[in-house]
Design brief:
Elements: E1 2-6, E2 9-13, E3 18-24, E4 27-32, E5 35-40, H1 43-47, E6 55-59, E7 62-65, E8 69-72, E9 76-79, E10 84-86, H2 92-102
Antiparallel strand pairs: 1-2, 3-4, 3-7, 4-5, 6-7, 8-9, 9-10
């Protein structure tokens, strides 16, 4: 679970409910299966608390939950909720290596 503060209240969300997190200025937007949650924070600070085996930085402004990947293209990722997340050029090699590590040959 991840715990964060929003409007003087603490909220807890299970990792499996999170599709991805994006940075929009000084706010973070958590895209979940029950809606979007906005709160103030820094992506780089949040990234330190997320489990590396479940979350991956794919762009300067995006961290995705690898459990919710539907299709990985060269420059973008289709998520299970229908959203498309960009992959930065700098991170394409990391994504390719991830795919090679988890892929099953059919």
């Amino acid at each position: 679970c991840i715990t964060f503060k929003m409007k003087n209240e603490y909220h807890k969300i299970s990792y499996d409910k999170i599709y991805y997190i994006l940075s929009a200025g000084r706010k973070l937007v958590m895209i979940t299966d029950f809606g979007n949650i906005e709160y103030y924070g820094k992506l780089i600070e949040l990234e330190q608390f997320l489990p590396k085996n479940r979350f991956m930085r794919v762009h300067q402004s995006y961290i995705i939950n690898v459990e919710h990947i539907r299709v990985i293209h060269r420059e973008e990722i289709d998520m299970n909720n229908g959203d498309i997340v960009p992959i930065s050029r700098a991170r394409q090699d990391t994504i390719r290596k991830y795919c090679e590590r988890v892929a099953i040959n059919i």
